[in-house]
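Margin note from the TA: students keep mixing up input and output lines. Inputs are the sequences; the output is the structure of the whole complex. Example:
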Amino acid sequence: MAGQKLTKRKLEALKTREKLIKAARELIQEQGLDRTSISEITKRCGVANGTFYTYFKRKEDVLSAISIEIFNELYAKALSYEGSFLQRLEFFLINFAAYIEESGVRLCQEWVRNTVNPKLALNDDDKVKLDFDLNLLRSLIASGVEQGALRVEVEVDALSRLLVELLYGQMLCWDFSDGTYSYKERTKEFCEKFLPLIIKPYLKE
Amino acid sequence: MAGQKLTKRKLEALKTREKLIKAARELIQEQGLDRTSISEITKRCGVANGTFYTYFKRKEDVLSAISIEIFNELYAKALSYEGSFLQRLEFFLINFAAYIEESGVRLCQEWVRNTVNPKLALNDDDKVKLDFDLNLLRSLIASGVEQGALRVEVEVDALSRLLVELLYGQMLCWDFSDGTYSYKERTKEFCEKFLPLIIKPYLKE
Amino acid sequence: MAGQKLTKRKLEALKTREKLIKAARELIQEQGLDRTSISEITKRCGVANGTFYTYFKRKEDVLSAISIEIFNELYAKALSYEGSFLQRLEFFLINFAAYIEESGVRLCQEWVRNTVNPKLALNDDDKVKLDFDLNLLRSLIASGVEQGALRVEVEVDALSRLLVELLYGQMLCWDFSDGTYSYKERTKEFCEKFLPLIIKPYLKE
Amino acid sequence: MAGQKLTKRKLEALKTREKLIKAARELIQEQGLDRTSISEITKRCGVANGTFYTYFKRKEDVLSAISIEIFNELYAKALSYEGSFLQRLEFFLINFAAYIEESGVRLCQEWVRNTVNPKLALNDDDKVKLDFDLNLLRSLIASGVEQGALRVEVEVDALSRLLVELLYGQMLCWDFSDGTYSYKERTKEFCEKFLPLIIKPYLKE
DNA sequence: GATGAATGAGCATTCATTCAT
DNA sequence: AATGAATGAATGCTCATTCAT
């Protein structure tokens, strides 16, 4: 009895929530957010229109929920990697691209659309994501310093910012192209050709 | 003299078109495209609602027209610069940012929103702009090779792509921030701190 | 008793639908469909604009709904008649005209307008109505044969087709005249003067 | 000089008018009147938008002009026929159908649509056409009496009305069917099977 | 006679969201 | 938690028509 929080009812509710997210993700990937109506989403789940609002306050919130799912996986995996500083850095960058690519261009485009526009006053989590990514890279670089791989003089902020901008720039170009090439491959290429040039001056030795 | 087909009527028409673009630009900058109605735009010009559609097929088309104006100025100026290869490159990058910043975040955000989303099937000119920017940088770099500033071995495509991605990445981050810092300054900073690192290996001597 | 699924909510919904149809019928009769706006219809029912679209997909659909109501009554009554074959036939023809006349020229004109035009891709039920009327007459005539009133050699199809064309022709002329004479009287006249001529050769004895 | 009313200019003008009618006829036949815009019509003729209004007061007027062309041909031919009364009658009826069929269902449907609806307050010529057709048949029948083919007691009005209603009814059914069968053949069939039944009692002898 | 820029009325339609059941 | 009927704001767009040139 104690701790038994998941009654059958609550389990059902969780399932419903998951079904909604899944359906929304599919539909957004197929047609984009604007062209996807609440009733389409609920119809696909076999629930009533209003049920959507049991779980999400506004339509856009389901996009946030989807993003959170994706980014959580992304970060979990990207940071799990063990290895030298450079390997970890590359791993992070490439996996960032890989995850986003896997989840589909349309979804990524919607995410950009909804994040770029301040009027939607959408879940601020997304906006903060930029800072989140920045911090992630910052700590990655900081750990590089700690581990003695990077010089102490490295400008952590400027460097992490640069890398975030690169990742986002690659993402935006990929979105513009409607995903007609591989975002991941593009990032890999960057890691081979340019990352060393940028990092080298800060490497110890 | 030759081709002087501009009767008074056609001149008036051109003026009307310009007035519409100007009004739309102001309003979009103030409130974004979605919150700007056609009748607001036309009212500000003192023309009838329908007149808008004499010049633009759809609401979004005025955004394209605005972009074209801005980018044309941008390119005209950015390429006019005389100087060494590196100076010209920096000038281009910084001015790219400066122009976009001057025209306002809201406008830039709208441009990203409308370009990132393929469903609007908006004037393809915008999508092509990425290629246009790429080509511009490519020819800039190529001219650097011709003038003997860069080694022949430089990978023109990869390098120009990298720079475009950087510019776009900086732009996207700036959009995400709602323009709370200077895009131009950020690009300037990049030119100082990182551009040399990237270019140096390709510089002759 | 059985199948009594009508909760209070569903009953309310049915009532709303009926109110909409009634209001639309009145307004169309007064001004025609084009001049009748959705908000006029809903205002007259005291419901919100959008409620109309809970029950009808497009504006034209309410016209279909109205037709169906009218025609259902018509058929129900017209076929209820007991009597000799000729009496039943006359009763059908005259009542057809009478019902349509009662429901008003404007409505009839709208019905013709909307049925004649294939581009509206309006509810196909209306187009099928022609076939429905044909079948009705066909079965009427067939029953005449069965009951021994008509010779077996009668060409059922051709005869029923002729009668439908007559009914429709009288209706169209009545529409053209804006209802300035009586459709029903015209049909009655036809039944007296010409129907016997047409039927006689097929009558037994 | 005298009587030389057709200056080159006037000839050109007549040609323009003809071109407009021809283009309109084609476009209406292809898409119906509603979907055909003035600028489509003028574009197809290579003239300016406004030129349309040099020749027609309102959009619908071009439909009238087209009808007049068609009906004039129709009447000219239908009445030219020499022969016995019954032959002339049949010839008229069948040719009526044939002409309308030749000019296309879409056109016929538009004509019905526009004639049936009194709100358009369209050129009254069309409404009068019903009377015109009636009169035509009336005089045909009257001439039958004069020539001694029909008894004097024949009810000219009722008979001609019946025949017009039949023609119109066949036309309407044909319109409903979107022209999926032949109007002319249908009328021919009627002339064989039923016309004699109707006329016979009034034939002399 | 021809032009074509300007007009401006006019409304169906969508759909996110609410809330009584 | 689920339902689904009701809401109602909000506006892009068309296009027949006019008229100054």
